[in-house]
Design a protein that fits this description.
Keywords: Membrane, Transmembrane, Transmembrane helix
Subcellular location: Membrane
Low-confidence stretches: 100-104
Strand content: under 5%
GO molecular function, one term: structural constituent of myelin sheath
Protein name: Glycoprotein M6Bb isoform X4
Radius of gyration: 26 Å
Organism: Notothenia coriiceps
Number of helices: 6
Number of strands: 2
């Protein structure tokens, strides 16, 4: 066998679907974890400076955000390892499906492991749909605040009393109703929207939401690839049993 034929045979064993999914998964998780962590820190700074100046009013929220940041560390570590394992499993199953190497044979243990990855990937895909929906919530809240500021600053608005336009974050349940001041109105609200913390946090939440969406797509590709490989391996095992008799 020549060098060219050997290279073609090796390239035939590359799980391109799993490879694309791994790259997309790593990128999506990195964007979600990195941008989400920084955006949460900026959100706490905005709340402490403009909406809840008494520490005890937002103490629980600060603890929850800190816990979420630790969870982000765990998510990043887990998916880095899980992506590598799925890519390795993709190389194994692709070689077994295409029967490129004689040592890659289907076994009961191998099929059980493939089935386990199929089940686990389905569960993670459903979980990340929830994460994607949850990551859209701060985008919605910041968009409402940004659109209100745009209305105040718009020359076409023709407003006589801009102080009557307010954003009350207490109505979203972020801070308790007894938090002071709890809301921002008029020019104060416009100044908040002009701060770097607000601008950065808003756009980072958008990127984090996009990263969660990319991770959902990556897990969907993983599900299709692992399910197909598992089905083919199971079918081949039945063929092997039939040929023995």
């Amino acid at each position: 066998m020549g060098c060219f034929e050997c290279c073609i045979k090796c390239l035939g064993g590359v799980p391109y679907a799993s490879l694309v999914a791994t790259i997309l998964c790593f990128s999506g998780v990195a964007l979600f974890c990195g941008c989400g962590h920084v955006a949460l820190t900026g959100t706490v700074a905005i709340l402490e400076t403009h909406f809840s100046k008494v520490t005890s009013d937002h103490a629980m929220l600060s603890d929850i955000i800190q816990l979420m940041q630790y969870v982000i560390y765990g998510i990043a570590s887990f998916f880095f390892l899980y992506g590598i394992i799925l890519l390795a499993e993709g190389f194994y199953t692709t070689s077994a499906v295409k029967e490129l190497h004689s040592e890659f044979k289907t076994t009961i243990c191998g099929r059980c492991i493939s089935g386990m990855f199929v089940f686990l990937t389905y569960i993670l895909g459903i979980a990340w749909l929830g994460v994607f929906g949850f990551s859209a919530v701060p985008v919605f809240l910041f968009y409402n605040m940004w659109s209100t500021c745009a209305t105040i600053k718009s020359p076409m608005a023709n407003l006589t009393d801009i102080d009557s336009i307010c954003v009350d974050v207490r109505q979203y349940g972020i801070i308790p109703w007894n938090a002071t001041p709890g809301k921002a109105c008029g020019s104060t609200l416009g100044d908040i929207c002009s701060t770097s913390e607000f601008y950065l946090s808003y756009h980072l939440y958008i990127v984090a939401c996009a990263g969660a969406g990319a991770t959902v797509i990556a897990l969907l590709i993983y599900m299709m690839a692992t399910t197909y490989n598992f089905a083919v391996l199971k079918f081949k095992s039945r063929e092997d049993c039939c040929t023995k008799f």
